[in-house]
Protein 1
Amino acid sequence: MDPIGRRPSPLRPLATAPQAEARPAATAKAAPANSVAQVQQSTFDAPASRAAASKPIPGAWRGGPDTAVGKAIAGMIERMRGSEASGITLKGDTMESLFTRAILDNKHVTNEQLLTITNVKLEQLATSPEDRAKVLKKVPNARELPVHKFTVGMLAAATGLDPKQLSEVCPDLGLTGAPGTPILYAAKTERMQRSTALHDFTDYLRGAGVKGMNKAVWGVENRVLSAAVSALGGGRY
């Protein structure tokens, strides 16, 4: 039977010996195809950094790749793409998409602020030991929450700090509210989690000396007022 179920026509000659001998030649052509597959496989097996490098870096309008701000942005984005938290999403946003929309594409955030962020030190962000104890008493699994890992990952990538060290000294990152107040909890909705992650990002940087970060994103610099704007779903992003 032929492939569509018909019997061979009696008028159609069967393959002659020379034709049958030609078939191995078609098999021999498989070698180049295999070599192409091997090349493709080697591409898939390339380091993640090479794959990330092939993607365009956002924020190009701020400065070319050879400028100080261009190099700073490239470092931030590459660290986000290589972060263990890169696969976490909050309300549809990855760290990179939220950072790009709220910070890099935000005309109220200046290049000077971005460059200052890269010089922030761990001790400038660290929560006091007393407040860390309060955080872990109220939310013992704070460091295991996806929103915490997301917030730590974004802040660590932007500053160049080690995410494990940042998580250790700031277990409250990603929690709604503040230690030492009646309001401190792990938000259940992803909308509030995303809002909290971004507000923690801007407010911790404000506290570390990067002036104007809250105002650039939320429209007001004050910590409490900007948190209220964030919780209500406002802001400039």
Protein 2
Amino acid sequence: MSLTPEQERLKAAYVRARGYWTDWTEALLRFSPHFLDLYARYGGYPAAHGPLSARMCELIYVALDASSTHLFESGLRLHMALAVEHGATPAQVMEVLAMATEQGLGGTRIGVEILAEELAAAGQDVPELHAALSDRQRALQAAWRERFGDWPHHAEVLLRLDPDYFALVLELSAFADPEDRLTETDRALLRLALDACFTGLNPPALRDGIRRAIRIGVAWPAILQVLQMTAHLGVHACALGGPALTGIVEQNQS
């Protein structure tokens, strides 16, 4: 397709701002250049105005695209490559993927609280839920508090009902290459992205995560930028539909 001068301008501006060009952006340029312009301004706003580095933005996109609630492979490959290009190491990218794996605990965390409530409502006495903690349970509780600075109800219930599993959860939450790990600020922001992502929205964990981020000194503009960036997954409707539309149009023209 021969581009008009305006389309050439839009394409150049997009590549300059985002660092890539794909088949779906090509489809938008072809069929709806005004929407491409709008998305470029909307999608590019957080990075242009927020405090996060290009490296950190790409790691957030890695987490979002790798999330089991989204699994957008082409975006994941693109943003992993851009993250490395902007200075992330393979070990740090792997750490982000491990954090996305941890996102699977969202249902467990909510579910064990409901389980405890419903057991009580059914009149079932579960001694583990009110017995004194063992020495090992107290040590695990202390380790959680040291790591996260809080003690949410779901942690209390899970620790009491299955301390062995709780220990594995705690270990998973700390997984990282010991010599090449992300900072605690990076990890706090990545957790916010995974919990705020609309495909895996977890309001209780999101509130806990925002409290934790504030407590460790993360400035609110960084938190706001992450929350804004999670909205970008919505454009994957275009990422899937645009190339498909191109194929339909080309088939009808042949």
Protein 3
Amino acid sequence: MTTVTGDCALDDQAATAALARRLAVVLRPGDVVALTGPLGAGKTTFARFLIQALGVAEEVPSPTFNLVLDYDTAQGEVRHFDLFRLADADEAWELGIEDAFAEAIVLIEWPERIAGLLPGERLDLTLTPGADETARRAAWCGYGARGERLAAALAGP
């Protein structure tokens, strides 16, 4: 399987939003973005910027308590999963993750909770804290043709 990797510094939230916008333009149903990083690294913030870049004007809360939130966009349905509270990977099936993989743009926070269930073609995006409160470091790896396309968008023109 082909992989494409890259990374960049995100000096502030504006840079994080810009990275999310680059990715948003190429997303389509069936794409999976796995967001990893420690607590407070900015996974939900990135997902929020991405969903807003897809045209969602309403508030984009964290799905921590609901586990999954759905959004309708011009590019297709977005399903935003937060799997932090999952006790067992099999619980993801009950959340409809299999259907989401086939029909929606899928954002997953804490994907390591279901590592064995993740599709082979995806984008893994890791966020880590930077030098100050709003700075981050982003590193990505795109797997397969879909992941390659998404990773290329993050790398920029």
